[in-house]
Amino acid sequence: MAYKFIDNYRERGARKQLVELLKRRGIEDKGVLAAIGKVPRHYFFDETFWNQAYKDIAFPIGDGQTISQPYTVAYQTELLHIQRGDKVLEIGTGSGYQTCILLELGANVYTIERQASLYNRTTRVLPYMGYKPNFFLGDGSKGIPEHAPYDKILVTAGAPFVPDVMLKQLRIGGVMVIPVGSEKEQKMVTVLRVGEQEYERIELDTFRFVPLVGDQAW
Ligand code: SAM
Fold first, then answer.
1. 94 CA closest ligand 1 atom index
2. Reaction catalysed (predicted)?
3. Per-residue pLDDT tens over the stretch 152-179
4. What is the number of domains present in the chain?
5. CA 192–ligand 1 middle distance (angstroms)
6. Counting atoms of ligand 1 from 1, which one is nearest the CA of 118?
7. By residue range, what is the domain housing residue 127?
């Protein structure tokens, strides 16, 4: 795929319209909305599909994977309450779009992807766009223990359960956001680590994610 980086009035206008749509759908966090308004989502698409980039839909990015729907990205990010300087572990880099949103919010992002083709693409494209997370290739269902603890953990694929090994990588006071359920649909779950062995879990709305595949997953 050839990359083309042009952000003209058409894309900027479509991005503003997307932000308005997300507000109408209930996204309130000003930082999240500003980040969505800033990151050029069309850069993650082949030019042929730029007219799809600012619709509120998930879209195939190759290798059976998708760039998440903007509403889903905004919803998960809002739940994380990112503060500047937060150390965030993201499981499932995918296209890297969500990674850029986290970076725009001032997070220090550790992102892991299991598919080499996607990892190879994001490690080239994101730095070219000016975004510099810490990239990892491998099974993120076990987290990345060597860099723990994290202030926030975001899982962007559907898990059959909340992996214990990942929870232990949250600092006390930290939050994890993870879709949990069947292969067909998942509930968005937030877990707050309140003590050494204590966690508070809340189940929210239903979503459909591609499966989290790995040792502590499907
Ligand atoms: N948020 C991403 C974006 O904005 O493009 C979309 C992520 S996509 C819905 C889910 C990603 O999780 C896929 O790229 C998939 O390959 C990856 N994935 C699934 N299981 C994984 C695992 N165990 N470790 C790391 N990545 C995994």
1. 14
2. [protein]-L-isoaspartate + S-adenosyl-L-methionine = [protein]-L-isoaspartate alpha-methyl ester + S-adenosyl-L-homocysteine
3. 999 999 999 999 999 999 999 999 999 9
4. 1
5. 22
6. 14
7. 58-207
The amino acid at 153? I
Half-sphere exposure of 191 (CA within 13 A, CB side): 24
Pocket-testing residue among 39, 69, 115, ligand 1, by greatest number of atoms within 8 A of Cβ:
115
The single residue listed with the structure tokens 């899982």 is: 155
**Atom from ligand 1 closest to the CA of residue 217:** 23
CATH number assigned to the domain comprising residue 187: 3.40.50.150
H, E, C per residue of 172-212: EEEEEEEEEECCCCEEEEEEEECCCCCEEEEEEEEECCCEC
- Please report the ipTM that was assigned to this predicted complex: 0.99
Asked whether the beta carbons of 89 and 153 are under 8 A apart, the reply is: yes
Q: What is the pLDDT of residues 176-215, one digit of tens each?
A: 999 999 999 999 999 999 999 999 999 999 999 999 999 9
pLDDT for 63 equals 80
CA 20 from centroid of its chain's CA atoms: 20
164 occurs within a structural domain: yes
Q: Confirm whether 68 is a catalytic residue.
A: yes
Spatial distance between the Cα atoms of 204 and 126, rounded to a whole number of angstroms:
31
The residue contributing the CA closest to ligand 1 atom 8 is 94
Whose CA is closest to atom 11 on ligand 1? Answer: 92
CA dist., res. 112 & res. 117, Å (int) = 13
